[in-house]
UniProtKB/TrEMBL annotation:
InterPro entries found in the cross-reference section: Secre_tail (IPR026444)
Domain Secretion system C-terminal sorting, residue spans: 185-252
Pfam families, per the entry: Por_Secre_tail
Organism this protein belongs to: Neolewinella lacunae
Designated name of the protein: T9SS type A sorting domain-containing protein
Signal peptide coordinates: 1-18
Keyword Signal appears in the UniProt entry: yes
């Protein structure tokens, strides 16, 4: 009578071990509030998650996302480190569950949970489920994310605030107002070169051009003004242009289509 019972207990222990100690996900649950100065359509909030294989076997790791309540326009995406780099191009279904990541015992992989609120404040949540491609339907671990996005009101130096601040306090608030980032590229699509336009008070600095995988292809260390930024020798395609101010702060990363008309 003891042998069958011991065998049953051993099988149950193995099952629990297999189910409960395959993956370690850090962090497992995230609740965050993000206050954004310039909540435009290109803004993305990115959270890093590390998944570690703590089992004794190799796993073909895949993930899927289950989106909860959110503003209708919000988009979520889950990407592995090798997928691409920011800014991410999100589609309606960016779970990336069909791209397995091979994890040997003891290995870790980074995943990025990307939220693009499309310029809209609000609250939303997502659950990311990790499983082994070779064992379909068996969820090994989950990680949940709840995010609240708030647009910070701007202080306009030309218009007195509605609250009764002292003169000194108002001047300090105006001096600490975030630098606006509503810069733009033109023309887009571009042919031989493109130009960068910044609002008054913003001094441009370095400009970087990268492909959609994040590989930097061009660096312009100073503003080119009326001469523009030459990209004539780059192949046709979509590029990411990162714009910095004169202090080295990144203002924005914009997409630029390069098309050599007539080529």
């Amino acid at each position: 009578m003891k042998s069958p019972l011991l065998l049953l207990l051993s099988l149950f222990s193995l099952y629990v071990l297999a189910q409960g100690t395959v993956l370690r996900v850090e962090p497992g649950n995230v609740v965050k509030e993000v206050v954004v100065d310039d909540l435009d359509e290109d803004y993305q909030d990115i959270t890093n998650v590390t998944v570690t294989n703590i089992s004794g076997r190799t796993i073909q790791l895949v993930q899927e996302q289950l989106v909860g309540n959110k503003p209708r326009a919000w988009k979520y995406g889950t990407f592995s480190r090798r997928s691409r780099t920011a800014p991410y191009v999100l589609s309606e279904d960016d779970g990336q569950g069909d791209i397995p990541v091979r994890l040997a015992p003891g290995e870790s992989a980074s995943f990025y949970i990307v939220l693009q609120p499309e310029g809209i404040s609000g609250e939303g949540s997502i659950e990311v489920r990790f499983s082994d491609l070779t064992v379909p339907g068996n969820i090994l671990a989950t990680s949940t994310f709840a995010t609240k996005v708030i647009r910070r009101p701007r202080v306009n130096a030309a218009t007195p605030p509605s609250l009764p601040l002292s003169t000194a306090a108002y001047e300090a608030a105006a001096a600490n107002r975030p630098v606006p980032t509503d810069v733009r590229l033109y023309p887009n699509p571009a042919y031989e070169r493109f130009f960068v336009e910044a609002p008054p008070g913003v001094k441009l600095g370095k400009i970087e051009v990268a492909n959609t995988l994040g590989k930097r292809l061009r660096t312009f260390e100073r503003p080119m003004g009326k001469d523009g930024y030459e990209i004539q020798d780059l192949p046709d395609g979509l590029y990411l242009v990162s714009i910095y101010d004169s202090q080295g702060k990144k203002l924005k990363t914009l997409r630029l289509l390069h098309r050599r008309f007539g080529a």
